[in-house]
Amino acid sequence: MELHAGTFNPEDFAWKGLTLTATAAKHIRELSIKQGVLGLRLGVKQTGCAGFGYVLNTVSEPTAGDLIYERDGAKLYVSPEAMPFIDGTQVDYVRDGLNQVFKFHNPKAQNQCGCGESFGIQAE
């Protein structure tokens, strides 16, 4: 196996995976039915003061190579390229007063910005 600094091959890793709480699964399932989609895609993008932000999009057609995490009929799609940043994450859906939001309990997140919109990870 040839190694290069700064490169990543998703096939070199065994993932712990993602988990959905019962409330997250219920909300994803309801959204999927309401919008006529297969589920949601969780990804990351570079943003914010801490480095990365979570991105959720609906999935009408799966992408080749997608990892699919399922609970109670709810499907969460993830590309292998996103896994180094979110592996082991528990996805929850919480209500706080009038606010309803997905929460990500990510063991890889080493720091978070003050507003909670972005996170940073430490290179291994």
From TrEMBL:
GO terms for biological process: iron-sulfur cluster assembly. Pfam families: Fe-S_biosyn (PF01521). The gene is sufA. The keyword Nucleus does not apply. One of its GO terms (molecular function) is 2 iron, 2 sulfur cluster binding. Belongs to the HesB/IscA family. Transmembrane segments: none annotated. The keyword Repeat does not apply. Signal peptide: none annotated. Residues 18-117 form the Core domain. Gene3D superfamilies: HesB-like domain. Keywords: Iron. This is Fe-S cluster assembly scaffold SufA. SUPFAM superfamilies: HesB-like domain (SSF89360). GO terms for cellular component: cytosol. InterPro entries: ATAP, ATAP_core_dom, Fe-S_cluster_asmbl/transfer, FeS_cluster_insertion_CS, HesB-like_dom_sf, SufA_proteobacteria.
